[in-house]
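Memo to structure team: turn this sequence into structure tokens by end of day. - J.P.
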Amino acid sequence: MRTIITIVRLALSLLVTTHTIAQSVTPDRMPVSERMAKARAAKQAKKSAANHAQLTADQPGTGVKIQKATPADYQTPIDKLKKGPNGEAVHIGERGGKYYINKNGNKTYLSSNQ
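Reply from structure team:
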């Protein structure tokens, strides 16, 4: 009889504890819909700030100039002392390799003894 009462007490305390835990709400946790709305608002604010910065940079008198890169900025150095087999200009690659542009528009590398 005593063990039955002990088991019933244990079961009731466990039931009350789980019921209390299940109904407790953490105050710092927002519902998903509110978190999504907040994230959308932050993203929109960031986008509008970037657009505003771009617009003010493009306007004259703001003191901000935007320099756009030209294709001349990306050209590889040319070795003026060497020519390809048909008189093409010889370019020097990033790692020091020398090549010329063949008639098909492809790079043809020169061997190191040329």
